Prior knowledge:
By secondary structure, this protein is α/β, with parallel strands linked by helices. The protein contains five helices and six strands.
Amino acid sequence: MHANELAPPRGATRNRKRLARGNSAGGGTYAGKGLKGQKSRSGSKIRLGFEGGQMPLIRRMSTLRGFNNKWRVAYQPVNTGTLQERCEDGAEVTPESLLAIGVLRHLREPVKILARGELSRPLNVHAHKISAAARARIEGAGGTVTLIGEAEADTETEAEG
Length: 161
C-alpha cells in the first residue's frame, strides 16, 4: 500500500450541504437563516459587544475595569498624635494594648504607625510597619521602635542558612 492509495472507508465522509441552491437541494428558501432581520441579510456581521442599540454591558459597568491586587496588605493606621493622647509615659504600645484602649477595632489587619500629630512622651512601640517620620518622632522623644514579624523572619533565615 502506498500513500496515494490511502482513503477513508466508504460511507465515512459526507459532502457539505450547499445552501440557497433551490428547495429540491434541501437548503433553499431561507438557507438556514430564518426569517427577516439584521442577521438574515447578506454580509451581516454585528460587532463584538453590540447589543442592538441598548447600552452595552462593558459601558454600563465602566467602574469595574482595572485591576485589584489580591496580595495587597491593608494596614490599620495609627498616628503619633493619637499615641500622645491615649498612652502614658513609657508605655508598651502593642496592637493588643491599642485594641484595649479603643484605638483599634480588631486585630485582623497589621498596624502601621504614621507621623501625624506631635509626640513628646517616650513610648516603646511594637508595630508591623512604621513610617520614617514616625520612627524619628518616637526615637526623638526617647522611645523605642520594634517591628513585629521582623525578628521572627531574621531567625528563620539564619536557621535556613
